[in-house]
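User: Could you go from structure to sequence for me? I need the amino acid at each position, not a summary. Structure tokens:
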């Protein structure tokens, strides 16, 4: 089986990132600007990265995208862009849960808690087992909760790797809850798209790819407009 060229996009976070990989080799990664909307930068970032890596869009074998949870607007932009590119070129896609990529970024661990800011001081969270540098398994369902409820949800775990921007933001709370537990906080990554690509490669190897029109966002919580209704 030849190694696929993968273009991966992560717009679930404010900064976001794009990556081009061949198999598990990272050819290039570009991090976004958190102060500018993905709608203004994503296609330009993709074009810039392709030029840097000397890859043409028609050479891409697989398009991957973080499907959430995360920024509602960012998810819609990323998924719509990948749908359009993959459909135009008649290529398969891989929708990767954002929290799975976050957990993978923390390294191999029997129990990894992925955390992302969810607005209003709350977090998206989910527990995973990172079995290998290319394989994660969920151990519970994704949730949208106040950080204060993290101990209620995960306080019984003795050994945990806390991963993602949400872990960095809430590091003091996590450290105060740790007591004598073997809890560590993984360094934050600015290139989450490369981990999206690695999980997409696993999907490719397992022949678990999707038609672009089957891509769906994972929101976890209702949008603000629904909350106000």
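Assistant: Here is the amino acid at each position, in order:
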């Amino acid at each position: 089986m030849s190694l696929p060229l993968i273009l991966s996009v992560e717009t679930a976070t404010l900064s976001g990132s794009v990556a081009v990989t061949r198999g598990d080799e990272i050819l290039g990664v570009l991090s976004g600007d958190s102060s500018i909307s993905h709608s203004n930068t994503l296609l330009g970032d993709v074009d810039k990265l392709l030029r840097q890596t000397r890859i043409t869009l028609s050479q891409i074998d697989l398009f991957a995208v973080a499907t959430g949870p995360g920024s509602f607007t960012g998810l819609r932009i990323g998924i719509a862009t990948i749908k359009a590119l993959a459909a135009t070129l008649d290529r398969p896609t891989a929708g990767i849960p954002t929290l799975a990529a976050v957990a993978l970024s923390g390294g191999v661990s029997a129990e990894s808690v992925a955390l992302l800011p969810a607005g209003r001081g709350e977090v998206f969270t989910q527990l995973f087992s990172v079995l290998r540098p290319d394989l994660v398994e969920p151990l519970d369902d994704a949730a949208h909760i106040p950080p204060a409820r993290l101990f209620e949800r995960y306080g019984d775990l003795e050994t945990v790797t806390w991963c993602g921007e949400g872990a960095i933001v809430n590091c003091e709370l996590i450290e105060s809850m740790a007591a004598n537990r073997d809890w560590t906080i993984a360094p934050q990554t600015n290139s989450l798209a490369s981990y999206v690509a690695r999980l997409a490669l696993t999907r490719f190897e397992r022949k678990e790819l999707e038609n672009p029109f089957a891509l769906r966002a994972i929101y976890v919580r209702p949008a603000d407009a629904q909350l106000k209704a």
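One structural detail worth keeping in mind: The domain at 5-98+190-228 is CATH 3.30.420.40 (Nucleotidyltransferase; domain 5).
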